Amino acid sequence: MRLTTSELRELPLAAKWCRDDGSDIASTPEWVDGGAGSTQFRFGSLRLIVAEPKNQPGVAALSARVLDELDRCAAAAPPDLRAVRNLLRAGLRLVTGVPDLTERRTTVVMEAVRAAAHDENVDLRTRAPVSGRVRGGDTVALALKQLATNARRHNRAEDLRLEERIAGDFRVSWRGTRTPGPVETSRHPDQRRSWGLGLARLAADALGAGLLPVRHRDDGRSESAFVLLSGSRFTLPLAAVDAQGRVVRATRAWDEETALSPGHALTPELSSLADEARRMETAMVHRGAFAARRGAVLTWIVLTPRGTREQALDLVAGVVHERALAGDGVDAVRLEGCAQALGLALGAPTKPWLRGAVAEELPAACAAFDAPMPLIEDAGRPTPPAPLLAFLSAQGRGGQLQPCEGGWIFRPLSSSALLAALGVSGTVVIPTAHQLRPPS
Amino acid sequence: MSTRPTALVLEDSRSERDQLASLLNGLGLDVWPTDSPQRACEWIDRQRDYDLAVIDWDMTLSADSNGDTTSRRVLEALARDARETLTVVYARQLGREDINGDVLRAHPAALLHDKRHGEESLRQRLTKILSPRVGDLELDERYRIYVCHVPSGRRFKHRIAFKLMTNYPEPVMIPRDARGPWCGMGRFRKWLRDVGSTVSVVHLGQPSQRYRLVLEAEDHAPDH
């Protein structure tokens, strides 16, 4: 996709374009220099820097804390679990925009895929690889594992095999039900139903790889492919549409996300968004994860990049999804407590736990966080989970939990920067019903 | 009918399933492991007299979750069709109110054991459950298929004896057409008389096919 300098300014984002040396080329009207938080995209010799829609330092700090605990979990893994914990670590770093690009021996990568898939009841045969080493080995392994488990679950795949066709070109093939087509997932958590394949998509973006559609081969086998490409890809899902609502130009990432390549008509939802943008002169309009702006000639629609909030949502989902991989030790308790606090900051509901179970687990959880035991009012009623209570007590150097309508209130004895992300006026409200709270 | 006590294991993580199978094998049980709730239901339907079932709750990693990512259907089948199977739900987050409620609604009599406590804790609990003492009888520590008469040191081997011991004081039902258990029952009753045990087997009256162990001092009038 080519863009003129004028068109650079029309994208429906708060963004600016720079050259490799950092000098500015153009920016959209919403761009403000000095803002905190941004996402970067490579576009040939240019860089697109997209600003965060809202500064969320509390969420960012909690996310960083979760990643620290994740690193401890991975470091503490016994030898037989190390490869699997490294995959967990790679996956969760990936969703927070800090992909693990550590080079690994390709034989190690293939074995990690086989072992991780094996534990998920997916038997995978591997062939000796072609290349010696691969950049971002754990991230590649994660993507390949997802392709294999996805094939098993959705295509009833049998006789699964993994091979490296040529250097950096990995193929997962199988015999199973015939369902060719694009990989159905999304970069944006609001646009996808399940966790697994979203990781493969993000891994492809992070490594400059292609995640190819499932195809059927002449030998009766189906295959999906993860191919490391030379050069960078522009991974922003972006399209230009005409007044009749047809896609005129689009990035490959847009095709992957929407299956609406040039020539296709927009879906009713996106068409409505484009119409609204045309009515709004040059202001941006938003609908869910999409944004649009009318340009001089065409209307631009973009799937907004994952910001701090979306990354944190994926991080929390990932810790829950991969809970078993973290084990049951002290590090896992700390990881769980920090992830539960992050979920709280994002407005996720907290499921109540039986008082007896919490009473049993709380001493060990507080010991894990080196926290004093909190006071809990109204003994007998369900409470938040022990790891979360221990985290709050550690941050507040103790505190008191009281039930309230719709949840609980935690009153810490002292304040901390992380607690400030969770509450105002010295208290932390922990809702049980699904109440969307604006992040602080 | 297998001569060793049997255990059904439903666990979607392969490494955890292998560990459980090894643990239960070490306790002298014949293990039937699977990651598939559907297969577990089929096995329960075909062979309803598992002595023990160790069931995980979260089936996310199973390939045939069929829209339900829990083992609810399996627990309901055990509660409905295999009431004499001692069922242990070995899972994570059992302290969570909604999960706890869902599990106990599916199988009200299930024992719960949180994975957070570790495999050794489960082994200790199962060892205790599988080491009943009834009067002067107990199960062999290593080979639980053997019932030992403590005063004489003599041993008897049959699954029906194991079932009667581990279900005590509850009765065990023997299907009319189950030749193996009927033969075993007859031999066990004779053995109890031969060793002079304080324990005997009583029939709980027609038309029931239920039997249970009683101690000499108990009133063993049949139930109606």
What would you say about this model in short?
Chain A is an alpha+beta fold and 440 residues long. In chain A, 36% of the residues lie in helices and 22% in strands.
Describe the protein in words.
The complex is a heterodimer of chains A (about 450) and B (about 220). Chain A is an alpha+beta fold and about 450 residues long. Chain A contains 13 helices and 20 strands. Chain A has a 5-stranded mixed sheet, with helices on one face. A 5-stranded antiparallel sheet of chain A has the order 13-12-16-15-14, covered by helices on one side. The radius of gyration of chain A is 24 Å and the shape is globular. Chain A starts with a helix and ends in a 9-residue tail after the last strand. Mean pLDDT of chain A is about 85; it is low at about 435-440. Helix content of chain B is about 35%, strand content about 20%. By secondary structure, chain B is α/β, with parallel strands linked by helices. The two termini of chain B are about 30 Å apart. In chain B, helix 2 (about 35-45) packs parallel to helix 3 and helix 3 packs parallel to helix 4 (about 95-105). Classes of the chains: A alpha+beta (about 450), B alpha/beta (about 220). The interface of A and B includes residues 321 and 351 of A.
Give the tags.
heterodimer, A: 440 residues, alpha+beta, five-stranded mixed beta sheet, five-stranded antiparallel beta sheet, 13 helices, 20 strands, globular, disordered C terminus, B: 224 residues, alpha/beta, five-stranded parallel beta sheet, four-stranded antiparallel beta sheet, 7 helices, 12 strands
